Amino acid sequence: LRNPLNVIKTSVYFLLNARTLTPEKRAEHLQRIERHVLLADGVITALSDFARMPAPDLKPVVVRRVVED
Q: 23-49 pLDDT, tens per residue?
């Protein structure tokens, strides 16, 4: 997540501090921000999916066999 956040931070800094900002540069940085927000969102989704516990697969068992095993 650090990489996309650093790209976003850098682009925001540029947009806030550029002395002469052409419409092309503005659009380029806004597109870069959007692309990296989507990338970070994908990473968060993947981490959430990975961490989610699967539903237990409950089924009857013979306790005696489980204890013996």
A: 999 999 999 999 999 999 999 999 999
Ramachandran class of 6: left when φ > 0, alpha when ψ lies in -120 to 50, beta otherwise: alpha
**Mean pLDDT, the chain, integer:** 94
pTM higher than 0.70, yes or no? yes
Rounded distance between C-alpha atoms, residue 33 and residue 51, angstroms? 27
Alpha helices per DSSP H over the chain = 2-17, 23-51, 63-68
Query: Which among 40, 18, 19, 39 is positioned nearest to 29, based on CA atoms?
Result: 18
Query: Is the Cα dihedral 20, 13, 7, 47 positive or negative?
Result: negative
